[in-house]
C-alpha cells in the first residue's frame, strides 16, 4: 500500500484540504460525497436497517444516523458474515453508503459491495488506506472523492474534493 500525499498549491484551507491520498482498491468505482466517520466498528447484520437506512445498534455511538448517500469511513468492520448481504441490500435500496474507506482490509464489506455491483449494477468503491492516510481522512473537513481502479496503489482519495476538483 502506498501513501503519496501532496498539497495543492494556493490552498488557504486546513492543511489537509486539497490533498490526494493513495491506497489499495478492494472494490472499483468512483464517487464524490460527504463522509460519515464511524469511530466504532459497525456490524451491518443487526446493526443497520437496510430499509430505513439507519444505524440501529443501540450500543453504537451513531445509533439513529444514516449512511445513505455518504462515504462511510470506518477503521474495520465487526461481526457476522451476513453483514455482506445487509450491505448489498442497503445499496440496492439506496439507503447504503456510496463509498467506503477502511484502514484494514475487510472481505465481508468488500463482498457486500461486489454483490451489489454484480446483481444490481450499483458500484460502491471500497478502498483501504494505511493508518496515517486513514487518519488524515478522519480529520479532514468537506466532501471526499474516491477514484478506485486497478488494485494495489490504484485508489485515490481526494480530501475536500471541492478544492481538489477546482484545481484539476
Task: Provide a descriptive summary of the structure in words.
With 168 residues, the protein is α/β, with parallel strands linked by helices. It has a domain of 105 residues: Phosphohistidine domain (Glucose Oxidase, domain 1, 3-Layer(bba) Sandwich), CATH 3.50.30.10. It contains four helices and ten strands; from the N terminus they run ββββββαβαβαββα. Strand 7, helix 2 and strand 8 form a beta-alpha-beta unit. The longest helix is centred in the C-terminal third of the chain and has 14 residues.
Dominant shape = globular
CATH topology of the domain at 35-139: Glucose Oxidase, domain 1
Give the distance, in angstroms, between the N- and C-terminal Cα atoms. 24 Å
What is the H/E string? EEEEEEHEHEHEEH
Q: In which order are the strands of the major sheet placed?
A: 2-9-10-1-8-7-6-3
What is the number of beta strands? 10
Mean pLDDT: 86
Q: In terms of per-residue confidence, which ranges show pLDDT below 50 for 5 or more consecutive residues?
A: 1-15, 163-168
Q: CATH homologous superfamily of the domain at 35-139, by name?
A: Phosphohistidine domain
